[in-house]
Write a structure and sequence with these properties.
Layout lengths: L12 H4 L1 H7 L29 H4 L10 H16 L4 H10 L58
Length: 155
């Protein structure tokens, strides 16, 4: 099993690691699928990063994303997500899940409410939140946080 950083902004493993996974029948689970919040719409061209964000607390791993090329790509992603009525994060995660090589993804929410700062749970398949602001509540016992379906009772 392989677990590496991989996202719309970080695709180096396509050429180097995916062929090895195919050759040896290994699963591939990307972490940082939202590129430290960059694929959520949190960071915008010409704007200061939000207080408490990764770019203010630990910018080193993500500093290379602060370029016109990346901001152009983020703006295109935002437009495509809007045309589909989904969040940027939702579209970025859907793209990953559509890749044959990806067997699962690891998402570490950046905020306590589980929205990863960009609303990972927004979109047509998100569980209902019951909140006026549309943000997701914390985990609900017996309900899948991915699909909203009831999970079977544990013995």
């Amino acid at each position: 099993w392989v677990q590496n950083g991989f996202s719309l902004l970080e695709q180096g493993d396509r050429e180097s690691v995916f062929p090895i996974c195919h050759e040896h029948g290994l699963g591939y689970t990307p972490f940082s699928p939202l590129a430290g919040g960059w694929l959520t719409g949190k960071y915008r061209r010409g704007e200061t990063p939000p207080p408490g964000s990764r770019m203010t607390l630990r910018p080193e791993p993500y500093a290379g994303y602060s370029s016109d090329r990346v901001f152009d790509a983020l703006e295109a992603l935002a437009a495509e997500a809007a045309s589909r009525d989904v969040s940027m994060a939702g579209l970025a995660l859907a793209w990953l899940l559509a890749l044959d090589e990806v067997t699962a993804i690891v998402v570490g929410p950046g905020r306590r409410d589980g929205t990863a700062g960009g609303g990972v749970r927004h979109g047509p398949h998100a569980p209902p939140s019951g909140r006026r602001d549309g943000r997701a509540e914390g985990p609900r016992p017996g309900v899948s946080q991915v699909t909203g379906d009831q999970r079977p009772e544990a013995d």
